[in-house]
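Subject: Sanity check before I submit

Could someone independently write out the structure tokens for this chain? I want to compare against mine line by line before I put it in a report. The sequence has 162 residues.
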Amino acid sequence: MGEGIAQDEQILFSLTTTRKGYILEYVCTLFLILLPLFASIKGYAIPVNIVYLLIGLGTLILIYTEIARIYTRYTVTNKKLVIVRGLLRQDKKNVYFHPLAFVPDINVEQNMLQRLFNVGTISVKSSDVSSFEIRDIDSPHEIAQEIERLIDEERRSGAQKK
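---
Independent answer below. Compare away.
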């Protein structure tokens, strides 16, 4: 089974942050890398050190963005949500649906650009330590509805056990 998933759990879906969530970083990278090319086409002489600096900075931003994107994973099982972040130092958080049965607040946060690309962040705020965020994912409204369904399912099964 997956990392930290018990045998009686079923993985419903796994998510990673989407490239669309990092559109600003990609545009800045493209600008930094293409700036020397456009300057030379217009006839401006840019010192070679500056060209290397711009291309290197653009490449570093691209590498950092990809590492941040790839090494943030969300796994939703029938019992919990597992959030794993990091490459060298990993942070792992298990959020069980049972304590979330009393969650007062599930929100989808999107700015104008994110709405255009159907990307967003789901934030679940609770009065206890069960608060978390699922950042920069595709179709955040559908994922939020699925989380709400799982919480309601846990709430109903908890009520039946009493």
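---
OP: Matches mine. For the report I'm noting this point. The helical segments are 23-41, 48-70, 97-100, 112-117, 140-161.
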